[in-house]
Request: fold
Amino acid sequence: MPETIVVEKTESETSLDVPWNVVVHNDPVNLMSYVSRVFIKVFGFTKEKAQKHMLEVHQMGRSIVWTGQRERAEAYVQQLHGYLLLATLEKRE
Amino acid sequence: MKVTRLDEQTIAIGPLDLFCTELLHQIHLCVNPDENPAVHDRLFPKPTAGADAELDSEWCDYVEPELVELFATSIDVIQKDIAEFPPARPAADHHTLHLSVRHLDAWVHGLNQARLAIAADHNFTESDMDGPIPTDGDARALAIFQVHFYGWLQECFLRELRDE
Reply:
């Protein structure tokens, strides 16, 4: 009879499982064409998808550009900061 | 003044008068974030905007130094491209700057650093950016002109990169 292993799910594991959003915020200086180009380079978006998110940032003040594991979300935010976009990560509600 | 593609590898910006040439030489001066905390905060934003103090703090320790290095790389390219511009001879009021297309990404990035830093330094708002360029002749008016001049160059370079 196989031995039963009980794995307790810890709080930290649970928090790691929560999806994280990568959010880009509007700023009055970054050019719209530049923001679209960054989305294409970082996320591999099509031109149309990049423009959709860029316009969302411009008109709504923010756009969720990616959702997933925290580690990758942090890496994306770092890349976006490298391109000088105002980006944050937040837990998906 | 216009940006022209000369061949596959080269673009030309000109004619540049002495004032615009001086603005190019000021790009690296604009991005020193130690002068004004607002400039530093804009160039190095916190990843959770204060929601997670621990992550924001770790970001300062581990990510910010990498970004500092990355940003300096772009500025170095620009500095080298204009180190001997304008040439001493022939003496003239206007000159044309030639750039390698391979450097355009660095220029776009460096110009962006400068624009964001100037805007943070002067606390520019959306209406400052969208309004007419003031002709007051004071430091703020010059700064807005500078941001728009760099923005125009950025747009021209982005257009060239799109056509690649």
The interface with chain B takes residues 27-31, 33-34, 37, 74, 77-78, 81-84, 86-90 of chain A (CB under 8 Å). The CA atoms of residues 35 and 54 of chain A lie 6 Å apart.
